Amino acid sequence: MSKKTLLVIALGTAIIVAALVWAFSPRPVNVEVAEVTRGLFEQTIDDDGKTRVRERYVVSAPLAGRLQRLTLKAGDVVERDAVVALLRPVAPPLIDAREERELESQVSMARAGLARAATAVERARIALAQARADAQRTKKLAAEGFVSSTQLERDELNVALSTREVAAAEFERQAAEHQLALARAALTRSRQGWQEGRGEQFEIRSPVAGRVLRVAQESEAVVKFADTLLEIGDPSDLEVVVDVLSGDALQIAAGQAARLERQGVTAPLEGRVRKVEPSAFTKISALGVEEQRVNVVIDIVSPRAQWQNLGDAYRIDARIVVHKTDDAVQAPVAALFRDGARWAVFVADGNIARKRIIESSRRNAQMALVEKGLAAGDRVIAYPGDAVRDGGKIVYRNLK
Asked: CA 294, CA 242: separation in Å to the nearest integer?
């Protein structure tokens, strides 16, 4: 075989070997890269809720009778003791001993409710006095540098919330006084000859000043005892009720901050958790799954001018802050993956992917708090697929 033929064979063999090496060698993987940052980290529990008038009063019929057509509409302003409805007798009723005892029981129940409301007022006033005293002491200590400004803000906020609790207790006491007056009036009229069929009318008055929230019975009709006629409250005194999963409720405590977002409004409202209700309830999710939910009540602490257009039962998106770190190393949640029982990420080291084990105990919807394993400025691979390997070559698709 000639040298020329051998040279051609050798050259062809080299080309084939080079093609096979190129075909089977691993190619760089296109990846998205995000940067590890340092800054404020917040872990929140997000859910939707609705606004609710803090204290509402349901005006009901104290007697059975014919209700005259109501002239009030939802949104109308009413003063305390203003006449909101009129009742006329349907027919001369016959009162017997049983009915009289029932009316007497109503009076006793209303009297007990008034005593209970008066006790609540005193309790709220004592709590307010204690909150003011604590705030005064904290203010003096803060001026001398013994306590932080955060503690002073917390005590001042507690004074504001205690003031609202006193107002709410007064509201309840006024409502209880009105209920007692209604019960006494019903018993007195029954004893004084309401059964004689005189064409007199019974005036139903508003127990508090406020606005009409809802009219349950607008047209003239015969109503029974305790039928709901309308609801009255103060729409400027709102709270937000958010039902969260019972597992999430374990992380929520009174006093935690919350952000309240409304559709069509960019600036969120500031809120603070007032209480987590002690009892859960069952709710069917959109997927048909039974869930145990707990109501979380949030007070709006932003100035009234920022939410004056809100009304009763408006939808709100709430973000309850359950953990906050001011200067934290954080990485995108999309970069984390499980490596056995530990968390890991792929760090972009030039054009090489390096797997790194990290420690992360808290995450929110976008970022994860990293206690160990990463530093600010590191680049991590987001959404790493099966093609990414430790030590493998990568090509940046983007740089965030």
From this structure: 8
Highest mean pLDDT range out of 64-73, 94-103, 199-208? 64-73
β-strands 238-245, 83-88 pairing = unpaired
The identity of residue 240, as a single letter, is: V
Question: What's the pLDDT tens digit per position in 114-140?
Answer: 888 888 888 888 888 888 888 888 888
